[in-house]
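Hi C.,

You asked whether I'd gotten around to modeling the 246-residue construct. I have! Everything is below, sequence then structure, no commentary in between.
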Amino acid sequence: MVVNDTVMGGVSEAEVKPHPDGGVTFSGDLSLENNGGFTSTRTGDIPRDWSNVSALKFEVVGDGRTYIATVRTPQRSMRRIYYRQAFDTVAGEATTITLPLEDFEAYTFGRRRPSAPSLAQVRSRVGSIGVMLADKNPGPFSLRIMSVTGVTGESPEPLTVGSARSALIDAIERGVPLFNQGDADRCADVYATALTTLLLAAPDQFSSDQTEVIVVALQKAQQAETDEERAWILRRAIDAVAVGLP
């Protein structure tokens, strides 16, 4: 499927077509108009067993631009939580690019989550793989993707989480002192990272209503005008969810 900045008012265009010599071509026109600036494509499904995958290998023919590999979770409620890693291409040349899972960075609502679990730790939650272009250079682009495969090797043990309630209480205990000393931004990051990590690693501990509370709070926090407001939005969500947990 293709997802462009048109979802937020932009006018970038893209399509994916089979290539006569194998694979597919992801091409179109990137535009910065109407506050746009990205275009992307992603798979509808992937193999289920990632137990031994330690990296992704892309075989591509590029156009000299820098693209971003993306990996997303399958749950609709967590569609805004994704991992990304940039890679360069050489115009007109076939290139094999290996991207270790450990080097993917977690993002939520466009904000990086450096303390979130690594992609290797939550690889059992992977639902789709994609490619994004967002290099701020308007104009035509074309990327032939010949193949995407998993590279097997040693990977960290999957992330395990104990009590979600305990994790949220711990986030409060770490966040409150930061807020009280005037560091609302770091406090909010602690809260957001805790909520994001739990959605990724322990979704079964939440009801659908609790999950919705978390997702809505993360989205509203991203739109907050101040760090203080962002911290309070997330703190209220933690309080609302924690009270219903064992």
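If it helps when you're writing up: DSSP finds four helices and twelve strands in the chain.

Thanks,
B.
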